[in-house]
Amino acid sequence: MSAEATSPGAHSRRRGIPRIDLRRLGRAALLGPASRDRLPDAMGHVAEAHRAHFPDADLSVLHKAYVLAEASHRGQSRKSGEPFITHPLAVTLILAELGAETTTLTASLLHDTVEDTEVTLEQVRAEFGAEVCYLVDGVTKLEKVDYGAAAEPETFRKMLVATGNDVRVMSIKLADRLHNMRTLGVMRPEKQARIAKVTRDVLIPLAERLGVQALKTELEDLVFAILHPEEYAHTRALIADNATSGDALAAISEDVRRVLREAGITAEVLVRPRHFVSVHRSRLKRGELRGTDFGRLLVLVGEDADCYAVLGELHTCFTPVISEFKDFIAAPKFNLYQSLHTAVAGPDGAVAEVLIRTHQMHKVAEAGVVALGNPYASVDIAEPQDGERADPTRPGWLSRLLEWQQAAPDPDTFWTTLRDDLAQDREITVFRAEGGMLGLPAGATCVDAAYAQYGDGAHRCLGARVNDRLATLSTVLRDGDTVQLLLAQDATSGPSPEWLAHARTAAARIAIAGWLAAHPEAGPLPAVPPRAPHPVAADRRGAAHAVVDVPGATVRLAGCCRPVPPDAVTGFSVRGGAVTVHREECPAVDRMRALDRAPVTVSWGETPGCRVTLYAESFGRRRLLADLTEAIATAGAAIVSAVVEPPSEQRVRHTYTLQLPDADGLPGLIRAMRDVPGVYDVSRAQHPATA
């Protein structure tokens, strides 16, 4: 893939600001002389970007780090043929533009020296101090010679532990991966796909959780271009065909400026083009796109109160789309993001989405933890204490991740669990009845709350009270719920195997699986349930049993999204007294809620088996079909039917209808299929719902 094809974010750059040619700068750095009293020419852009955020920054340490990096990497080249020094320069420039402080930039210049040159950590410590040494060590890969196939997962484990002590480690890693993805076109397609899948499954979720949206959006576009080239090409053509779409938003932005000017509110109103993946998602959600769907309006103000003043004026002078309003200022996202989201309709009926935030909120929204500067400046961190540093900014999800990774010594278990954990990209806060709060991923149950609060002591959990009402351990918690967990007095009590189906957090799953492995003779525990719901078997092809609290209702699994356990599901009553069950992310659910249809709570009962259709996207190669069917058989699934489409541009699409003896095995089956060499994606079949 060409370099141009792997830079899909270029369309959103402002006109008149040229893209910095890092290859030219890198060669100039090697060939052009630099006097001792100034930075080398290649560092000029880094210094300029850094001084824009830190006018009084001392650049001498950057000069010193650059000299060491250039000298140690001299003679090395990247696979693209350019001097290797262009890579640390590019990584440092990315971080400088985001507003990283001097220590982070120093470490980014040196981040490959220990890994790829004769420079040692002791030398880095002696020259630049313990703080820079810690950051460089955190992003240094483990050797394949020592770890073999476990090198990659163990490197990520090491990096995450280091991030738990200093979040700047992950900032450097994300910038490093972004530049590598920008230049991935020189790699073989198979390696491009492998790196893109790891980026999709691990790095992009980490960028989202750390709030670094500027890196996340470009990484998403680059992964999209590699793993879904046809959809990417179609989206690129849509953007090109609607190159004048900014005119529609520009007209609304002028009206917004006029309204705010007349109200006496000082604000900056900008048109922000959507990136490729955002346009693609909008097309899937809305079908045909209009001119205003290719971008959003961004309103920047000085103070928090001004955000609400702007919101009031917009909702007064325009027609608001109330369903699009979200207040992330009063209730910030777990990744530091704050903003008001709304949508307004212009006189011609065109709807424009509007983001309202302060300049500081915007800086944090784009750069996340990078915008915090040095979060450890008020803490003495000259030397780590017992191998760790106290990090007051460590988010709850990272603390939970660090806890469960210690209980997953097997690299394969760690790697699989990490990807599953990062796939849960939203958080909720629940309150403990005895005081205090618990941060949990969206979709967490009382089982997860028990292990988050009591650790291994949760093995004795019998039931729970949610908002002062008895609830089963499988009850899915909502943001703001109050939870009281009920424990048995018998210290020998343990979890039932069914708990694994209710656990969403890695810590809970690992703890339950460990106890069950140590007690193979264990039977199910008695529970303290609320009023028993009325179970009704789903009537579609003998699928898993869905349980609704509507006596006498007939339950149907929706054909549009084909839910199976352990999918998060919801139901809606339809004509004839039936309840139709949909996956939570099904578009039909949004339409039902928009019509004010009351949802019906649904849970999964006994799940003896299920039938599911999977799509496998792969590169063509010999024995691929044999390897895929072997992986399916090893996972315990039976193939009901299979269709293999003719290869297109060396890519093959397989469609399998499979019968699983246990629906809980579906995630493991998908992972097994994805691990087959040449397969770059496996997804569930899902068809658009009809009206």
Note down, in words, how this protein is organized.
A hairpin with a 4-residue loop joins strand 7 (427-432) and strand 8. The protein is α+β, with helices and mostly antiparallel strands and 691 residues long. Strands 1, 2, 3, 4, 5 and 6 form a six-stranded mixed β-sheet that branches. The chain has a five-stranded mixed β-sheet with strand order 8-7-11-9-10, covered by helices on one side. It has 26 helices and 22 strands.
Using only C-alpha atoms, the radius of gyration works out to: 27 Å
Number of helices: 26
The SS-based structural class is: alpha+beta
The average pLDDT value, as a whole number, equals: 79
Largest sheet: 6 strands, mixed
Helix amount, in percent? 40-55%
Distance between the termini: 40 Å
Segments where pLDDT lies below 50 for 5+ residues? Answer: 1-39, 378-393, 523-544, 687-691
- Oligomer category: single chain
What is this entry, summarized?
The protein has 691 residues and is an alpha+beta fold. The chain is built from 26 helices and 22 strands.
Secondary-structure map:
Blueprint: H1 22-31, H2 44-53, H3 60-73, H4 86-98, H5 102-109, H6 113-116, H7 121-128, H8 130-139, H9 144-147, H10 151-165, H11 168-182, H12 189-209, H13 213-227, H14 229-241, H15 245-262, E1 268-273, H16 276-286, E2 295-301, H17 304-317, E3 319-320, E4 326-327, E5 340-345, E6 351-358, H18 359-367, H19 396-405, H20 411-422, E7 427-432, E8 437-441, H21 446-454, E9 461-466, E10 469-471, E11 482-487, H22 499-502, H23 506-518, E12 534-536, E13 546-548, E14 554-557, E15 569-574, E16 578-583, H24 587-594, E17 599-600, E18 602-604, E19 610-619, H25 624-634, E20 638-644, E21 651-660, H26 666-674, E22 679-684
Parallel strand pairs: 2-6, 7-11, 14-16
Antiparallel strand pairs: 1-2, 3-5, 4-5, 5-6, 7-8, 9-10, 9-11, 12-13, 13-18, 15-16, 15-17, 19-21, 19-22, 20-21
